[in-house]
């Protein structure tokens, strides 16, 4: 607007045909030029204010996201935040650590002990020479990261006329909300029955949170005969009917992206239409990790012991077909140190634990799928294929120690009126992240959260490192 006003004045002088125009113009032009330069300066200041605010918001969110990491501290949070600021304002900085040529104030936490908010400061030099002071405040108790940016904008006229206008500040604070460990998440975002309990079913989440990501008013359904007990029950949309849960569901923002979405497919593939490995009768078999492209069927009282990481680092069983346990068969680990990860790939591979079977499994402690017990190829979620049902029909599935990640799968537990039974209750912890979770006819899925009680790791983004990041101001 200032530039248009200056332009109108100049045009008015130009149309003036009186003899005094030259004199007036000679007197007025310096003032008009100064006004034009001031207008340009102010426009630059306002534009830089917007840039700094965007940088502060991004840096605060990035820093708060680091609170999901169990060993996050002020130095790590400050380094991550500083990288985001540098990328937004065009300053040169190492992608992982502050560049000593760009940072003139050492990042040191303030005194006061680990419980007190920790402050770090740095000075960034952008490629055009602008100096930006960056202050980050990490409050581990309040689960917040505050970012303050201050920059003196290089101007031509404004620095003389109004020096205070050239100093731009932007502040932003992000908080990790719902800091209770995330132990169950249904990823479905739009349709009904994303998290569905009926006919005497239960989810008992000891010390952790249960989350329905569906925007459908019927996304979270728990009938009067069923129940959910957790530290926190979240639903993106208020349920259309009463949900029998303790505590009552609260509105939470959608978890986007998928908290485990950073995990990618393994470099493993299988030929199609291979026959399964069948283990049956009274056989007792030790099964090492490897490619099982036709799947594995265990039946008729057979006992299969997985050597897992006791036999091969990583302990990964790649499944190109179903893992089926039925007819009173047993599937277990070799010993307390063994761990196995089942990777389901191809168009159709899933697990089915049938009635009266016994299953006790634990995830590997090392390797590419450390901490994961069941991992579905994430490419299925983008392939357009219909979701597969991963089924537990036995009340003798006592241990599922680790994380179950079925990005496009439906975890179904149905005891088919055979009487109530606990599932996974003997696990130190169990985390479930699936497209949908549906329970029927008596199962009680027990999600313990004794993360310190085992050396099996919890993947970043769930369990104690889960939480929703939001700007609080």
From TrEMBL:
Residues 19-65 form the Putative Flp pilus-assembly TadG-like N-terminal domain. Pfam families: Tad. It comes from the Bacteria. InterPro entries: Tad_N. Residues 93-104 have a biased composition (Polar residues). Residues 105-118 have a biased composition (Low complexity). Residues 93-118 are annotated as: Disordered. This is Pilus assembly protein TadG-related protein. It comes from Alsobacter sp. KACC 23698.
